[in-house]
Fold each of these.
Amino acid sequence: MNAYITAAVRTAAGRRNGRLSGWHPADLAAEVLDALVERTGIDPAAVDDVLLGCVSQAGEQSTNVARNAVLASRLLPESVPGTSIDRQCGSSQQALQFAAQAVMAGTQDVVIAAGVESMSRVPMFTPSELPRRNGMGFYMSPRIQARYPGVEFSQFVGAEMIARRYGLSKDQLDAYALESHRRARAATEAGLFAPEILPVAAWKAGEEAGAALHTVDEGIRFDATLEGIAGVKLLQEGGRLSAATASQIADGAAGVMVVSEKALQTFGLKPLARIHHLSVLGHDPVVMLEAPIPATQAALKKAGLRIEDIDAFEVNEAFASVPLAWLQATGADPARLNVHGGAIALGHPLGASGAKLMTTLLNVLNRRKGRYGLQTMCEGGGMANVTIVEALH
């Protein structure tokens, strides 16, 4: 059986303590759920499940934020269930893959795969660091520490290791970051993000929500220069990466609707794309962020495709070293990668990023009339999901 995407939408990302920081994450996610129902015109009661990615499942994002988003929805009835998924930065990409698997297995016909993260209201590392500071233990068990003696898994260390392993200089990393901002600026000014962005009220924490709508990714540096990027303090002494060459902390939500052929016919839906391949791979948890490389290579082999067959790629810009190393190892065309910029400019709202990247990928494929699109992203613990879609124009 096939699984199809019939709608995809995202909020414009908000900067930390910025224009989305007043939103409770369950309410923000509910806006996306409702938009997917409205854009497809589907009967809300026909939704079999809501799978929602979220990394920092604490505080306002705790107690199954997926179900809470359903209960915050204006349209979805109480009969629609929801479950929250944590595969670190790939959480909502995994939500999409679980949704597709359910549809392909024939057990469900309409599934919403989405993600949300309010990094303003629930700061990164909250689930692990708060308990640790309060003497409640550490996620690295004695057996893990024995297997990796003297190591504390760190994405920052991993990003630097990749830069050195692939011979990436600070100048190359800085130049890549500038290009991310330039592409994001060009796409914004040309209105290319408009089909994928859901306008929501601009609502800053501590203030009342006004009439202004948030429609532009808040992290884009429209005046970015190479000199400015190069002058940002390094994340580590003697390192090559800085905050300017890393993804931006952001708030946001995104989602896609995944359906079966039966649902297409029943509700008269027009598919945007068919899920062509889905997989996930574990890799070195110390280097951690290198996993998209072997995952992409394995996925292409399983799918019977070559890198040249893919018309557009979305590789999450956790750090500039990740997509640059990926390009070097795969031989992909740089002009097909993150064509509207990436997380360095657009922000990385952790649990929402998987669905966010897929939304952008579908938009790019539609505009360029491309056939195949590939999405991958590095994930904490040394993992990577790969999803290949075939656009249906």
Amino acid sequence: MITLQTNLGDIKIELNFDKAPITAENFKQYVEEGFYNGTIFHRVIKGFMAQGGGFAPGLEEKATRESIKNEANNGLSNKRGTIAMARTQEPHSASAQFFINLTDNNFLDFTSESLQGWGYCVFGEVVEGMEVVDKMTLIETGNMFGHGDVPKEEIIITAATVE
């Protein structure tokens, strides 16, 4: 179990080591290293997802470890309350950034081992605190340093811990 303590409340996440062993271990390691402490949810889109894990306040990008293999072909779906890895257009580019699905986003699921089909790897789900994630969508967003959908009031992960 992982607890993300935020300035809006706590979010408890259960990782799925059976279906996404590489991804779950990668996330857990970042938590154990204290990487997420003091990071922000830098992209929040109502009715879609809340993304965090890569920036300190002021949109200061954090250096990460190497990218990991995309395990999106694990049969898990991007349903409301699941946590998945964010990545670039390159399917195997996820490192530290993650997002929590605010609704069922099955269009993000794996369909094939192709550039368009890889999808986004679900590796766990929120088991407590989904109301905190929903609260994020009430904060007005805008553009900042070339990034869109940035909350105008920072949503900070003050501490991330493994229980």
